Amino acid sequence: MWRWLRAWLLGAAELLVSAVVHLGYGFYIFAAAVVADVSLSLVEGLTGWGEGGVTKGSVVEGEDEAAVLDGAVPPIVLVHGIFGFGKGRLGGLSYFAGAEKKDDRVLVPDLGSLTSVHDRARELFYYLKGGQVDYGEEHSRECGHSRFGRTYERGHYPIWDEEHPAHLVGHSAGAQAIRLLQQMLHDKAFEGHDDTSENWVLSVTSLSGALNGSTRAYLDGMRPQDGRSLRPVCLLQICRIGSILYHWMDLPWLKRYYDFGFDHLGMSRRLVGARGLANLLLSRAAGDPFATGDWILPDLSIQGAARINARARTFPGTFYFSYVSRRTATVGGVTVPSGVLRIHPLLFVRVLQIHLIGGGRRDEDWEDNDGALNTFSMTHPRIPEEHPSLLVHNDSDCHPLRPGIWFVPCRFFFHSRFPWQFGYRLLRFPLLGWCKSMYYKIVEADHMTFVINRQRGGVQFDLIYDSIFQNCRKHVFRTAPPTTLPNQS
């Protein structure tokens, strides 16, 4: 009895701390955006400069941006992860911490922050190509929500096709969204667009990507038995209730700053009233994404990632890159947080906890993590089948790059003398023959190092993004590299 009570008290304390930290950080970011926007509006009002605050264009339709993207140089599309946001949200705060300024032709779409990978992939297509978002007749019917979403009068890259491809870069859950979009292009899954193909995508880059799911989903409240339903009391239940209330209130000025992306699910008080709110909170409403599993967390479970990977292929004509992060170390055979003072407050407790459950069991391969995702999950798609991959130890050894293989750049990795610590692997590269055995460590960074706050990332921030942009501009092309590169004219 005492053991059960102690476990319950520890669980309640952990939930309370996690909820306070997550909600506190969310309010901090939101308040900072409001204060910055109000300050800007006051300055503009006093000086007569400008026509309004940043939030005026919160849902960017991209008239000016699209005009710049003439296809001469493929754009780089940065896709945010869970709880993320695109250009124009949160008072102009940059999810990618200003990395988009490193190149003249970069797009940062605003997708649903909690919607499913399927819905986000569909939204990304219409964001680029233009038109009204169509979630698909079959999918919409199965999940019980509206088939259509927001309308882009003009796409951000309307000439997008096989002759004018794009580079797709996804952080966290964004990595799976861009992979599924490429598969949809191959499947010609967009009604009225019969000419799509996987070759519309020139390269796919995963930055701390959830390629095989995360065991954190179970820590936060997902049931490991099915990877879809939630425990009655957990952090994800707080998230569920908060997002329902947020969308039910349906306050336009509030949603201009931030939007979970559930408009097509009909949660507004104007549509469902007080009774509808009660049904939503009790998971009795038709089309409730938390009941049907049509939201992001089931896709971040290992089962959900396996379902996506079973469908999304690694195509032979596309270049694939994966950048992997870790904030743990092995001390005396025990996985513990590393660089404690540099771990983001949102992630500190989870860095220590994730190793306890491994891949749904005590599996040491899944213990290393960055506080949100398992390091083992980020390298390349592994489940249910392993996709071709290569750890790149020396960039000069693999240029020109070869499509159809997941490259895991090693320039930021630090060698370890101890094979039992992490990462002993015998690698093979088809053009070079057998490579020597390597002992390596993944780049020491938590899941938030490369987003929101550039100062936290330090030198690593610039190294990672410079590498990503350099791959897209100098090493990835189908015929010949462009004669003039952005920022070099």
Automatic annotation (TrEMBL):
Q: Which domain of life is it from?
A: Eukaryota
- Source organism per entry reads Eleusine coracana subsp. coracana
Q: Where is the Lipase-like C-terminal domain?
A: 75-188
Task: Kindly give the Pfam families that the UniProt entry links to this protein.
Answer: Lip_C (PF24708)
What keywords appear on the UniProt entry?
Membrane, Transmembrane, Transmembrane helix
What Gene3D superfamilies does the record tag this protein with? Answer: alpha/beta hydrolase
Q: What is this protein called?
A: Lipase-like C-terminal domain-containing protein
Phosphoprotein keyword on record: no
